[in-house]
């Protein structure tokens, strides 16, 4: 990964080689023969891949380095382009919370056209990374309803009433709003029946082409013709891998399956966090992406909230603290992670200071976690992070406190998203969590206490991989569809419940009000300084 200011780039060649190595290694470790692999699915970040007519990489970098042909999802080079696109108030924007984010593809495409003319003229296909991986494996460039609807302003509901998931075919891409692309200055992408951005789309899990091509099969160590399912974005694959992982004890007897799934939100917690909820009716929620038809669970509308930096923020907070090297050495000597060590340290501090509960340690420290902007629900990419309550203390204990306050700031952000969604028609009362941060017990318990909902952890924590494998299983006709596969392959692990101590609720309610005020104060300061510079 190459990082230079707001530009973050990767190499599709590098990623494909890593996929091949991983598949071979997984089959070897599991003693699985190629003929025993019934299907393959891809899930990847919603990064933008550029290739030419031969499928070779085209640079999207100021450097001109052809290896650097992916604009990574978190790249924020196109903030100005996003602002200009949003200023047009196109009707399609109501389906992404009222405006595109610089993390979506239209602003990035406009940036490349305006800044890298040579590359722009060379590109034959612009693809989401997961779609490109499926194309590289099969030679079929059919796009996923997940990627196109969530990141390209494609109107998936154009297929509503025409097709059901069970029809399992690639559909002519009739959901592009051509007026939108013309208005924003990218009308040339519509040429050749929209070949550069997608002529045909399919439900996730639809079998692509004739399965693995002989060349891709050889590279992966699998058999030619192995079915490959239409892809999902990684977070959405996490939703597919976890959304039915609810223990019977948490189910509500008087609700139908259809009603139950609509009361859940999945937190896919990694570098960033995605907040996924579905509904049978479309719900327009300002500042929250969607409603996206069939973008995750087929024939349901998806609402997608998000926080642009969560795991990345915790890493940043820890790695930039003077006590981090010492703490890392202590953790290594005990064969635990630095986060496990800080969790233990916080427990000890709570006892030593006779705190009524561990969360109260952070009473003087407040964090607004918008270090990479706010994706939801205020949708402000210019928002900045805030830490209130710093002192000259540089000890390991001070770092642990800052870590705790940052976890809480992230959890207050999720509470803000849940409350905002429920105020606009959702009825979310159960959270499911997966991804790297879901392995951190303190992180999950703080979220449960702050949001006031039970949080269910799936039996299979690598839920993104399970979601991807479901795509392969559906493509291989082992299940009738994605929802059927979810019900069979999702399984609950343990459930964490909010604290029953009313003092904990009172404490977090107070801190949440301070959290909300930090952004309002920032807006005021921003306005004051803008006026001062006029």
Automatic annotation (TrEMBL):
Keyword Ribosomal protein found: no
Cleavable signal peptide: none
Matches recorded under SUPFAM superfamilies: Actin-like ATPase domain
Gene Ontology molecular function terms on file: D-ribulokinase activity
Limits of the Carbohydrate kinase FGGY N-terminal domain: 6-241
InterPro entries per the UniProt record, alphabetical: ATPase_NBD, Carb_kinase_FGGY, FGGY_C, FGGY_N, FGGY_RbtK-like
Domain Carbohydrate kinase FGGY C-terminal, residue spans: 266-476
Taxonomic superkingdom: Eukaryota
One term under GO cellular component: cytoplasm
Record keywords, A-Z: Kinase, Transferase
Any one of the GO BP annotations: pentose metabolic process
NCBIfam families in UniProt: 5C_CHO_kinase
Family classification: Belongs to the FGGY kinase family.
Name of this chain's protein: FGGY carbohydrate kinase domain-containing protein
